[in-house]
Structure formats: C-alpha cells, structure tokens
Automatic annotation (TrEMBL):
Species in which this protein is naturally found: Schistosoma mattheei
Name of the featured protein: Uncharacterized protein
Family: Belongs to the V-ATPase D subunit family.
Keyword annotations: Ion transport, Transport
Entry-linked InterPro entries: V_ATPase_D
C-alpha cells in the first residue's frame, strides 16, 4: 500500500513538473468526456509564435493509473478494516459469554451441587442415628441379618444336595 501511494504521489509531482499549466481542469473533467486531451501551446521563438503540442500526456496517464491503483487498494483496506471491526465486536461478545459461564454459572452450579451433597450426607447421618438410637430398630436389623444368613445357609444346603446327586 505504501509503495503504491508513493508511486501515485511521485506521478503527481512529475505531472506538475512537466506541465506548467494548471492540471485541475483535467482532473475535474467528466468521465463521459474524452479520455485523452491534447493541448496546443504557442512558443515564442525569435519573435515568431510556433504552435505545438503541450507536454505531459504520458505523465497524466501514469498519474491516472497510479491513483486508480491507490483508490482500489484503499477500498480493499477499508473493507478489511470493517471486517476486522465486526470480528472484534463478535470476539468481545464471545469473551463476555465465556467469562459469564466461567465466573458466574459454573460457580453457581458447583455451590448447588455442594449444597445437595451436604443435605444428603446430613439426611444419611440422621437416618443412621435414628436407627442406631432405637433398640427395637437395632434388634430388628440384627434379626434381619440372622434371617438372611439362615436363608443363605438353607440355599447352600439345597444346592449341595442337588449337586451331590
């Protein structure tokens, strides 16, 4: 981009140097008019006026090409800049969402899970204490344990008899 702008400005300087006339009239011409104009110039040589062509046509063409390139590059640059600004806004919004999830939502869920775990542990301790504090409950649990053991022994004997035959 810098090289194109440098070349365009150098072309403008060379046009101003080669044509003594004001080039604003050429620049302000409408595009629908002729693309190239030839100017005549009169030189006074030994008291005679000689009609000839004014110089600078090639430099003006070069100036036009260089500034066309520069304008095209500036349009591309402006398009990229707009895209970068939009992308930057999207990235900022995404970062805000990530931060909200990381610093608000996840800690809230972790606190809820800790609360649920504590409540379940508390209920388990209360139930164990309730069962352990009652003699009837302990006796009932012991009897169930013995009945399960006796049932297990009966099943084992039956299996042994079946397998023995």
């Amino acid at each position: 981009m810098g090289e194109v702008m440098k070349e365009a400005n150098f072309s403008l300087a060379s046009v101003k140097f080669t044509t003594a006339a004001n080039i604003n009239s050429l620049v302000l011409q409408n595009v629908t008019k002729a693309q190239r104009k030839v100017k005549t110039d009169k030189e006074n040589v030994a008291a005679y006026e000689l009609t000839g062509l004014a110089g600078g046509g090639q430099q003006i063409d070069r100036l036009k090409k260089n500034y066309s390139k520069a304008v095209d590059l500036l349009v591309d640059l402006a398009s990229l800049q707009t895209s970068f600004i939009t992308l930057d806004d999207i990235i900022k919004a995404t970062n805000r969402r990530v931060n909200a999830i990381e610093f608000v939502i996840i800690p809230k869920i972790e606190r809820t899970l800790n609360y649920i775990t504590q409540e379940l542990d508390e209920r388990e301790r209360e139930e164990f204490f309730r069962l352990a504090s009652s003699d009837l409950s302990l006796q009932f649990i012991f009897e169930l344990y013995i009945l399960n053991f006796v049932l297990y022994l009966c099943v084992c004997r039956c299996l042994f008899k079946v397998l023995s035959y």
